[in-house]
Amino acid sequence: MAGTLAACGSSDGGQGSGDSKTVTLVSHDSWAASKDVIAAFEKQSGYKVNVLEDGDAGQAVNKAVLTKDNPQGDVFFGVDNTLLSRALDNGLFQSYEAKGSDRIAPEYRADQDKHRVTPIDTGDICVNYDKKYFADHKLDPPRSFDDLVKPEYKNLLVTENASTSSPGLGFLLGTAAKYGDGGWEGYWKKLKANGVKVVDGWEQAYNEEFSGSAGGKKAKGDRPLVVSYASSPPVEVVYADPKPAEAPTGVAQGTCFRQVEYAGLLSNAKNTKGGKALLDFLISERFQEDMPLNMYVYPVREGAQVPPEFVKYGPQAEDPETMDPAKIADNRDQWVKSWTSLVLK
Q1: pLDDT of residue 19
Q2: Which of 43, 75, 109, 152 is deepest in the core (most CB within 10 A)?
Q3: How far apart are the C-alpha atoms of 31 and 267, rounded to whole Å?
Q4: Side-chain half-sphere CA neighbours of 194 within 13 A
Q5: pLDDT score, position 7
């Protein structure tokens, strides 16, 4: 969601020995961190950080699984609770309990018996709305999943493909959590009849189709409802010049699904020592407090401070839908298959 930093350093040639002075982080495209924070890690650890970005979260996880025997890096960041089982079942990560793990809020922890992944951040996938559109049309914005299928919101929503996009999948899981195994398909039939538009990924949905974002305005987007994040409104404030008194976009609080992102030491990492040091750093207070205004996510470390803009414009959902990762693992592929035939055909 924000500009990305790749702190590239040259290897000292010892990559194969595990003593390399470069540690490589493989991530999705939304990775971002402040230069001084990465520099602090490099100084403290003696390792240079090299960042490889590999597309959207779903794409990046699939590629990491395909290359697991000869991975592109040492640590993978950005597998979330919607895709976690795919990574674990395919043996993507080796066990490592990061220093400071005891400071992670218990509700975000996963795989506690094997410690193959470390929670790094959390966020809520929710429908965002364009405040100006609804004010101009003297229409109340939707507040819940139920509202989205009402006739007054016909042809207003754009979402992402659940088979190719992490927020798209999160939104599908939110509806499955809300309406249950027997009800979510009926809900999507109504949503389709109400003119929902589906695009490949978040970038296209939010920055091209959505009328409320800075990018969408430039692209003349005409959908005033989009599946994005509860933390998207602060982006519209922080990057605006001049800064508006309030965010131009709002969040439909009754449409949220809680996402947790993890990082792990790749199974065949060449620099395991550097990878472990980097994982320790990702849950340090310094990195956790740097994340909100870089990646627009919430820290998972207890006591980590969140910037005021984040609290004011992008508060976490009070009562998001959630789902046990085991239930996601058992049903995800079948749900996505059913969703595809129902919504895209």
Answers
A1: 55
A2: 75
A3: 21
A4: 21
A5: 37
Q: 16: which DSSP letter?
A: G
Reference 50, options 94, 6, 98; nearest CA is 6
Task: Mark the ranges of the chain whose per-residue pLDDT is less than 70.
Answer: 1-19
- Extract the tokens encoding 6: 């790749």
How far, CA to CA in Å, does 12 sit from each of 48, 49, 58, 281, 310? Answer: 10, 13, 32, 22, 40
Pairing type for strands 298-299 and 118-130 reads antiparallel
Angle at the Cα of 142 (from 138 to 145), degrees rounded to 5? 160
Q: Which two tokens stand for residue 19?
A: 């003593």
Q: Are 257 and 276 in contact (CB under 8 A)?
A: no
What single letter denotes the amino acid at residue 191? L
pTM of the model: 0.85
Cα-only R_g, the chain:
20
Distance, in Å, from the CA atom of 173 to the CA atom of 177, rounded to the nearest integer, reads: 6
Q: CA angle, corner 107, sides to 104 and 113, nearest 5? A: 75
Q: Are 57 and 166 a contacting pair, CB within 8 Å?
A: yes
